[in-house]
């Protein structure tokens, strides 16, 4: 169900912005890499999103991201202007009805990246689209469930948290560190709010008509479908891991955070879905499901790090907007295929999950040195396409060798 994290320049070792996200989805839902080129569109043209069609803009930016194979939009990504966005499902009193359709949160991530040159501009793009077209439509391939969304938006200078309930929203400028999970977490400390957020909540009886400044979380958050244990612990955990390294945060810390299975644990420690320990930043359970892709973006560099399937059993690959992403990273459909790198890493994850304690150390011993080598590569690359092909080939070779050893 996703977690997003950001650290701005005062919190990082290189005085830059770092952005990360795990995309938690249905267990076997392939999420390949998408490389979307910049494009110019004729006046009056329209774009078909997952469920609805909306007016297209004249110019769309180049974007590198990942998203479920069956969805038009993206779970996470970064554009040519170094704007990064990730989304979270959030559950509010204003439940979205099916089959009524609107924009998925994933559609909004892609639209924001294609249309914005800064985090502030992306915030305007998203709030305008949400108010104009609304959110809705089935958000899972095999589940009949629609949901509102939270978004973390960042560029090299600033970051914004945007949290929504259907067409209503609140936004907060955040610094120097911040994280989101699967519930509204903006209280009365918002910087911007939709005009109808307070009166609508008061009309529905969710907020008193006393003139008190709206607390968006208290007014809109619902625990009817998901209990507080589902995301409260994850939000505290991500923020505590960021706080422990403030001023020293770097890509390695984000890799570790997005692979986290809980305090002092290589693997989830409980099978009780009523406890917070069941829900970890790197999930392996039937309720929260599993991470199907992960992204870490340093916004002072050209490299963008993506892991396929669960990040704890995968490796963060160095990818570049400027190069040609290898075809095997861009493949992934409903069924396993030999030409899909995502499915190779998914199969490795499945083998590790049979015996985490025995297998995970072997996987990390193979993949961690690759990441350390790639972290030392100079930026920018002389040939981004060649570098991505080299890293992809070595990662896939290591993955398949591990699969053979673990399955033996």
List keywords for this structure.
Penicillin V Acylase, Chain A; eight-stranded antiparallel beta sheet; seven-stranded antiparallel beta sheet; 19 strands
Summarize the structure in words:
The strands form 4 sheets. Strands 3-8-9-10-11-12-13-15 form an 8-stranded antiparallel sheet, covered by helices on one side. Strands 1, 2, 14, 16, 17, 18 and 19 form a 7-stranded antiparallel sheet that branches. It has a two-stranded antiparallel sheet with strand order 4-7. It is built from 9 helices and 19 strands. The chain has 2 domains: 3-300, 4-Layer Sandwich (Penicillin V Acylase, Chain A); 327-408, no CATH class. A hairpin with a 4-residue loop joins strand 17 and strand 18. The model has no long low-confidence stretch (mean pLDDT 95). It has helices spanning 105-115, 119-133, 197-203, 216-220, 232-243, 251-258, 341-353, 356-375, 384-407, and strands spanning 3-7, 18-25, 33-36, 39-40, 46-48, 53-55, 59-60, 63-66, 76-79, 84-90, 148-154, 159-165, 168-174, 177-180, 192-193, 284-285, 289-298, 303-308, 317-320. The radius of gyration is 20 Å and the shape is globular. It is an alpha+beta fold. Helix 1 (105-115) crosses helix 2 (119-133), helix 7 runs parallel beside helix 9 (384-407) and helix 8 (356-375) runs antiparallel to helix 9.
């Amino acid at each position: 169900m996703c977690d997003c994290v950001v650290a701005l320049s005062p919190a990082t070792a290189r005085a830059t912005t770092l952005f990360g996200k795990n995309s938690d989805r249905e267990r076997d839902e392939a999420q390949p890499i998408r490389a979307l080129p910049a494009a110019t569109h004729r006046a009056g043209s329209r774009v078909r999103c997952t469920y609805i069609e909306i007016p297209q803009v004249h110019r769309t930016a180049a974007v590198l991201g990942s998203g479920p194979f069956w969805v038009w939009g993206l779970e996470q990504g970064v554009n040519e202007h170094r704007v990064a966005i990730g989304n979270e499902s959030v559950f509010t009193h204003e439940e979205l009805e099916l089959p009524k359709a609107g924009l998925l949160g994933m559609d909004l991530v892609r639209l924001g990246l294609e249309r914005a040159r800064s985090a502030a501009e992306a915030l305007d793009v998203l709030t305008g689209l949400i108010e104009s077209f609304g959110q809705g439509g089935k958000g899972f391939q095999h589940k009949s469930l629609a949901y509102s969304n939270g978004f973390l938006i960042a560029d090299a200078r600033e970051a914004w948290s945007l949290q929504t309930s259907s067409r209503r929203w609140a936004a907060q400028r955040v610094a120097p560190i911040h994280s989101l999970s699967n519930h509204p977490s903006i209280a009365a400390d918002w910087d911007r709010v939709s005009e109808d957020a307070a009166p609508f909540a008061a009309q529905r009886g969710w907020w008193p008509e006393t003139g008190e400044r709206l607390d968006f979380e208290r007014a809109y958050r619902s625990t009817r479908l998901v209990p507080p244990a589902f995301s409260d612990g994850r939000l505290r955990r991500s923020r505590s891991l960021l706080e422990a390294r403030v001023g020293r945060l770097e890509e390695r810390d984000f890799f570790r955070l997005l692979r986290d299975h809980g305090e002092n644990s290589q693997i989830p420690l409980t099978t009780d879905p009523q406890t917070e320990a069941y829900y970890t930043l790197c999930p392996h359970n039937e309720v929260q499901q599993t991470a199907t892709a992960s992204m870490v973006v340093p916004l002072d560099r050209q490299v963008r790090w993506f892991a396929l399937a669960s990040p704890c059993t995968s490796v963060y690959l160095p990818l570049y907007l400027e190069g040609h992403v290898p075809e095997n990273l861009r493949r992934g459909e409903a069924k396993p295929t030999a030409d899909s790198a995502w499915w190779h890493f998914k199969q490795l994850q499945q083998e590790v999950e049979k015996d985490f304690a025995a297998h995970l150390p072997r996987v990390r011993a193979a993949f961690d040195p690759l990441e350390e080598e790639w972290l030392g590569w100079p930026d920018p690359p002389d040939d981004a396409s060649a570098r991505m092909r080299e890293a992809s080939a070595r990662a896939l070779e290591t993955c398949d060798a591990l699969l053979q050893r673990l399955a033996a």
